[in-house]
Automatic annotation (TrEMBL):
Pfam families from the UniProt entry: DUF1289
InterPro entries linked: DUF1289 (IPR010710)
Protein name (database record): DUF1289 domain-containing protein
PANTHER family named among the record's database cross-references: DUF1289 DOMAIN-CONTAINING PROTEIN
Natural source organism: Seohaeicola nanhaiensis
Length: 66
């Protein structure tokens, strides 16, 4: 389900429906976002969303190194 912001060209949520916060890493094991990023996602501007999205691959890769 897309919200109006996603339909208006904002980057969509990276949620993969694997919602499990990793306490040691400080972010979700499914999408890589912090609790605060998940909570604020719908109110973030496109630039803020893009900035977060660019960090997610590195965060998730760091889980596989442990």
């Amino acid at each position: 389900m897309n919200d109006q912001r996603e339909q208006s060209g904002l980057p969509p949520s990276p949620c993969r429906r694997i919602c499990r916060q990793n306490a040691e890493a400080g972010f979700c094991e499914g999408c890589g976002r912090t609790v605060l990023e998940v909570f604020r996602w719908t109110s973030l501007a496109a630039a803020e969303r893009s900035s977060i999205l660019s960090q997610l691959p590195g965060r998730l890769a760091s889980l596989n190194k442990a």
